Amino acid sequence: MKLPFERRVSLLALLSALPAIVVALVLLWTGDHQPRTQWTLTILIMGSSLGLLIALRERLIRPLQTVSNLLAALQEGDYSMRAQLGGPADSLGLVAHEVNTLGSTLREQRLEVLEATALLRRVMEEIDVAVFAFDSEDRLVFANRAAVRLLARSEESMKGRRATSIGLGDLLDGQSPRVADLAFPAAASRWEVRISDFRQDGKPHRLLVLSDLSRVLREEERTAWQRLIRVLGHEINNSLAPIRSIAQSLSAALDARSRTGPEMLDTEARGSGEPSADVLPRQELRQGLEVISGRSEALARFLSSYAQLARLPQPRLVALDVGEWIGRVVELETRLDIEIQPGPPTRIQADGDQLDQLLINLVDNAVDAASETDGSVRVGWSSGPAFVEVWVEDDGPGLPDSGNLFVPFFTTKADGSGIGLALSRQIAEAHHGTLVLANRNGSGGCLARLRLPVSSAA
């Protein structure tokens, strides 16, 4: 059996001193000394050796016990203890210094963890999102304030219970994230369900997050209605104002004619060949009707354009060669010779008709811009591991207001409808892609980038 460290130290110290003790005793007892002197010196030698042995043991063992106690305190989370052993130049002093430094570091890290945990708990309690944490057996270990309000139960009554017993078992299975219509004791609405995994104390846990989308959807719906009403009101008022003015003028003219009597007929109609005094009112009537007709047609076109944005059908995906698609659209533009900078052969799954309309809008805008500066237009594409990108750039004056580009009916053209870019972005998003327009860096003109994700590629 292996001896304890203290006994091994004592035994080694005794063995190291034993030769000197034996020699001293042999010389003492073999020499010419009185017995009283021999016993006295023998006791003195043995006592001093034993005292030195005990002192050596204490000087070696006590510092190690102190370091052990200090490490045990650190392990228990008590970082206030400090060791004072030796000086700064000896080995015990260096050990004590390192252990004290470790204690200070652990204390600072513990304070940081406690503060971060307190902040996280405060954030979790204050956010308006229901958060549930479950252990590996789907037992609830945490629920924030919003979760407690949602289920109308106290956290203490739910903690430790399985997800199925509190009505959340079905939510832990399925795709994440997803949107679902759910009814809870405190609210029934449309929710976004997110599930994620994390580990605590080395054990797997699951986090269930429920976000109420109804409020956000209502705000978005309200904003959309306000924008719709503002745009419709502006356009309809622009059409109704001249119609109202012309109608009032025509009504006044008819009132004046009715007061002069029905006998004032057009002399041309009676064959006299001389224009009567009411020829001018007839001309005004014709002009007024033309104005009313023109504004009515403009209003009809406006409403038709708005309906076009609202009735964009889902894309019908078929195989589409990017090079052929771009070449076909470029050939439709006859005002300017457009340079095509081809990329690698690429085929995607897309709705060719919708992408034709999208690219026609981009090319048409680019040609209009380049015509203002006698510049040129270039179209090309590139293919990467995650996307296929088609770009259109021009040498025009650039974008005056990039913030309103995709706002319906916003246009900088005198005869523009303001729906081309809005419709183009809608088509891009229907293909799970993006459309971005920006001014070119370091030079004039605009650069439009249409990006389709690799999931849409064949």
Model description:
Helices cover 52% and strands 17% of the residues. The chain has 458 residues and is of the alpha+beta class. The strands form 3 sheets. The protein has a 5-stranded antiparallel beta sheet with strand order 2-1-5-4-3. Strands 7-9-10-12-11 form a 5-stranded mixed beta sheet. Strands 6-8 form a two-stranded antiparallel sheet. A hairpin with a 3-residue loop joins β9 (377-383) and β10. The longest helix is centred in the middle third of the chain and has 47 residues, at 214-260. The model is unreliable at 263-280 (pLDDT under 50).
Record keyword descriptors for this entry.
elongated; 12 strands; about 450 residues; single chain; five-stranded mixed sheet; alpha+beta; five-stranded antiparallel sheet
Question: Topology, pairings included?
Answer:
Layout: H1 5-30, H2 35-75, H3 91-126, E1 130-134, E2 140-143, H4 145-151, H5 155-158, E3 178-183, E4 188-200, E5 203-212, H6 214-260, H7 279-310, E6 318-321, H8 322-332, E7 339-341, E8 347-350, H9 352-373, E9 377-383, E10 387-394, H10 420-430, E11 434-439, E12 446-453
Parallel strand pairs: 7-9
Antiparallel strand pairs: 1-2, 1-5, 3-4, 4-5, 6-8, 9-10, 10-12, 11-12
Helix pairs in contact: 1-2, 2-3, 6-7, 8-9, 9-10
The strand line-up of the biggest sheet is 2-1-5-4-3
Low-confidence stretches: 263-280
What pattern of helices and strands is seen along the backbone? HHHEEHHEEEHHEHEEHEEHEE
Structural class: alpha+beta
Give a short account of the largest sheet.
Answer: 5 strands, antiparallel
Query: Could you state the oligomeric state of the chains shown?
Result: single chain
Specify the overall morphology.
Answer: elongated
* Integer average pLDDT: 76
Strand content: 15-25%
Task: Tell me the span between the first and last alpha carbons.
Answer: 74 Å
Overall helicity:
40-55%
Question: Count of DSSP E strands?
Answer: 12
How many helical stretches? 10
Compute the CA-based radius of gyration. 46 Å
